[in-house]
């Protein structure tokens, strides 16, 4: 009986993972889950001194109208653009699940490698779309409507920017021949770090305070980019901005 249940569960898991709708639902669920605690702080607990003192720009208030505008954009992009692409990808390249899971060290190594690659790709994309005026006004300006970031602005982007970043996210695990489980961990990590960088909060446990030598930027690093526009182009790490002379620390 237990073997039968295990087989049925495994079959169900394989069916779900191989569904053409799974990537979009997975992405949307992870993204909204990462945004939820920060959104609660912005919308429900803004007057609590305990949390409000950690806000980077405390004078800026997030309203329900702003949050709903971001949510509309996010659902529109996922349903109208990511979903059709996900179905096409599923049709041309069905998901294959290996029998064995990767070891922990391989997962950590590959996730870090994917993050470093993504950081380089987005830095170059981002720098180009700020330096070339028509690229900025045509494709990236929409993301800069808010000079004070909050979690739901993470994916408040135009279609071209969303597709570009999604392409980088899918390309890197393929280039490194990552295990599907590693690929999922990379997606989760990438989405969380991106939301955290846009959260508008600096907590004692924020990721950049856990990484030594100022190698990681974090929320204040990216908040300065939205405030100053011409600094801090890298999404996560600081080495590319140091190299190009665009790093700003306050």
TrEMBL record:
Coiled coil, from the record: none
Q: Which UniProt keywords apply?
A: Membrane, Transmembrane, Transmembrane helix
Is Calcium among this UniProt entry's keywords? Answer: no
The cellular location(s) given in this protein's UniProt record come to: Membrane
Q: What's any GO biological process attached to this entry? A: lipid biosynthetic process
Where does the Fatty acid hydroxylase domain start and stop, copy by copy?
Answer: 111-246
Q: Do the record's keywords include Transmembrane?
A: yes
For this record, an example GO cellular component is: membrane
Major location (coarse): membrane
GO molecular-function term, one example from the UniProt record:
iron ion binding
Tell me which Pfam families the record gives. FA_hydroxylase (PF04116)
The residues that cross the membrane are: 20-45
- Protein name per Swiss-Prot or TrEMBL: Cholesterol 25-hydroxylase
Q: What is the native source organism of this protein?
A: Acanthochromis polyacanthus (spiny chromis)
